[in-house]
Amino acid sequence: MDALRRKWQSLPRGIVVLITALVIYIPLSFIVIQSFLSAPFFSPSKEWSLESFEFIFTDSDFYLALKSGFILAFGLVIIAIPLGGILAFLMVRTDLPGRRIIEPLILVPIFVSPMVLGFGYVVAAGPVGFFSLWAQSLLGFVPWNIYDMSSIVVIAGLTHVPHAYLYISSALRSVGSDVEEAARTAGATPLQVMTAVSLPMVRPAMLYATVLLFFLGLEVFGLMLVLGDPEGNMVLATYLYKLTNKLGTPSYHLMAAVAVVLICITIPLVMLQRRLMRTANRFVTVKGKASQARALPLGKWRWVAGAVVAFWLTVTIGVPLIGVILRSFISNWGVGVSLWDELSLNTFRTIWEQPNLLRAIVNSMAIGVIGGALAVVCYLFIGIAMHRKPDNVTRFLDYSVLVPVPCLVYWPVWPSCGCSYSYQCGSITR
């Protein structure tokens, strides 16, 4: 009787495991199978073949995209992790002015689409952008080129600082400040406290964020599509997206082969993440009675630190969003055009007159709200299933939900299965 009752109690957990496995591994298996076919699933002439891998491994654009992808990922990490760590220390441990106002602003790039940010940089700092034309009139030249690969790396790094900030700041809030206060008593400067005490204590969080950001760097799509396309810069995600246009016919088998390569590159990152989490307990501090940490006084550097944070906010958030907002009120823009003479509400009137644009806005909001709610519910059940019983099933779920599959990788699956698609990384219509 007890055995029967235990089986019934484990049934909901089994259902969660089964549904999770089906949702993750069935599309993944379609991608892998498609990569070993000579044509799409629905083609009567398909046969088992390695032609897809032979094509991409002999295509110079693939190696260009692979090289650029690693450059972007490494550059993103090199920029985002130090800045995220500095921001986390300033916001959590110091008396930085305006912290309550600054903290919500830091997270803005997470909630704004990369394509919107990319478009904002184009209209604000592109060849005929607002700030570019003003720089041209003042200096006689434009000191930047946002379409250059180095500029794209810098922009991607700056816009991913909030991801590093979230992990590192959460870790800083969870550790005691006793060691830091001892360092202050010993005469350490704020810089010494940050580099020698605070950030080393949250090294696992920094390493975890490093792995996560490297993976995010490999799957950057929207920003690279907007800023990289004018000068032919590609990463694997944009290379995958352009394969159909490159050959002129649906090339789902080639896209699947690229997707398999991308998955194989990123799977070791998941293994590394799990290893880092197993060693995190080595960095636990022993603390006494809980008490609110005293803010580290920055002294004469207080306003300098505030100015640095304000500069990052301006470049990362202010420039692209100002560009988007200004361009939305201007019908025509270019060299010699007066900004004030072109201000109007014509673009907003056009939106209300175009049913397709309104439907696109409604669909985007519906996907965001409904998709986000479903994701929260799914992860709630998965979290409960993992928390109740630490066993092999828990480990299976743990690795399954972390399978490194960028949303664009699933794109070739739906057309191959007979579905029509529109690229929105999740906007699927039958």
Automatic annotation (TrEMBL):
Residues 66-273 form the ABC transmembrane type-1 domain. One of its GO terms (biological process) is transmembrane transport. Its main location: membrane. Keywords: Cell inner membrane, Cell membrane, Membrane, Transmembrane, Transmembrane helix, Transport. The chain crosses the membrane at residues 15-42, 62-92, 104-124, 144-168, 205-227, 252-272, 303-330, 360-384, 396-414. GO terms for cellular component: plasma membrane. Gene3D superfamilies: MetI-like. The keyword Cell inner membrane applies. It is found in: Cell inner membrane; Cell membrane. It is a multi-pass membrane protein. Belongs to the binding-protein-dependent transport system permease family. This is Sulfate transport system permease protein CysW. It comes from Cedecea neteri.
